[in-house]
Amino acid sequence: MIPKTTQSNTTVLQQLCKLIPRDLLQRIAKEKGIDKKARAFTPMSHVAAMLFAQLARVVSLSDLRDWLQLKSGILQRFSIHPPGKNTLAHANKSRDAEFIQTLFWEVNALFSRQTPAFAYGIRNKSPLHRFKCKIHAVDSTIVQLCANSIDWAKYRSRKAAAKVHLRLDLRSFLPSFLIIGKGSQNDATQAEQLCKSLKEGEIVVMDKGYNDYSFFDRLDKNGVWWVTRAKDNMEYEVIEDISTGKKGIVKDQLVHLPGASNPDMTVRRVEAYVEVDGEERLMVFITNNEDWSPRTVCDLYRRRWDIEVFFKQIKQVLHISNFLGYSANAVIWQIYSALLMYLLLRYQAFLSKWRCCFTQLFTRVRAALWEYIDISRLMECYGTATGPPHVLEALEQLQLKGLE
Questions:
Q1: Which of 141, 150, 197, 239 sits 20 to 30 Å CA-CA off 335?
Q2: Can you tell me the distance from the alpha carbon of 271 to that of 250, in angstroms, rounded to the nearest whole number?
Q3: For residue 42, what is the enclosing H or E element?
Q4: Main-chain dihedrals φ then ψ at residue 71, nearest 5 degrees
Q5: Is 339's pLDDT higher than 90?
């Protein structure tokens, strides 16, 4: 029996869905023309089904249908109607994915307005906490698809894949811009669009796959600071050697790039030893900022690796490995549903002062998905010293249920 202090009138899944204002969802559905075409399977029911698919990690449309129909009594009390297999497949294929994209970005903006500290982030214990401006990381990741079922995303002769191009706010650890395209797309071709909305004084760090001197020159003219790794075959002419005298810094130089379209373009070149997986590796960085210390340049690039942690969380913890549909529209629906669930979990974790990792958060919520238990108490009572013994015992029982 769940103690009264932890009980709720709604399930954990319903509490997460309630973080999305119904009037916001209905407004977007109306703007996109989805509400007119929806019958019993409303936009809210569609979103709830896709969010559940993320938490339950269902393996097929049949699996998702069976789960939701089994819990139809609970869902209908929340005005959510479980779909049939064909209904959901048709909705994922034909219901404009721009709806779920807009919903994600507007909910993200809403949470930031409601709780500014959430947008500011809590990841400020790094050497870069002194920066007042936003720091962004840009990168991409491949999402494998079924080659036999898809033509729009041919990647290699026997493979199909989508590519997610992402700009991540490193302070909040939340996406700030996203492009989903073919796996064969070159990273550099998407860089311009990813960074188009960056403001003067902001910082963007990126891998050397985005090296494009014309792109760097435009960022420089817009007042955006950038840091990236130099390509191994980069041609340059040394203008000035800056004395380093600092441990781990091999060279600090101002250089001219002969291959740049702007003949006056100069950049800073920093050659330094950086710790990677416990080993010191020699790396070469370039940046358009001449005032930072060489160690700051290295530290900024090290923060770029945070985006790989984000990709790992999305791909390994959430559900974008087994797709419920392989049309471009269905793939976008599922990827944005994963991002929306990530956002809801992160926001609830922030409100509940959750201090453990995202994987533990996901596991705990998944175990108690259909329980009538207050989600804040669910998170507060994690561990051995944060809650009364009878509460912790009840939560342990919930987690054991998930293993049956």
A1: 197
A2: 5
A3: none
A4: -105, 25
A5: yes
Instruction: Assign domain 127-311 to a CATH class.
Output: alpha beta
Q: Is 0.90 surpassed by the pTM of this model? A: no
Give CATH 3.90.350.10 domain extents, the chain: 127-311
Contact 8, 372 (CB under 8 A): yes
pLDDT at residue 147 greater than cutoff 50: no
**224 sits in which H/E element:** none
Q: Which residues, listed in sequence order, are joined to residue 161 by a DSSP beta bridge? A: 144
| Cβ atoms 322, 150 nearer than 8 A | no
Task: State whether residue 214 is helix, strand or coil.
Answer: helix
Q: What DSSP line would sit under 176-202, residue for residue? A: EEEEEEETT--HHHHHHHHTTTPPTT-
Q: Decide if 285 contacts 228 (C-beta within 8 A).
A: yes
Residue 385 and residue 392 in contact, taking contact as beta carbons nearer than 8 Å? no
Instruction: List phi, psi (to 5°) of 208.
Output: -70, -10
- Contact indicator for 174, 108 with CB cutoff of 8 Å: yes
3-state helix, strand, coil in the chain (%, to 5): 45, 20, 35
CA angle 373, 378, 382 (to 5 degrees): 155
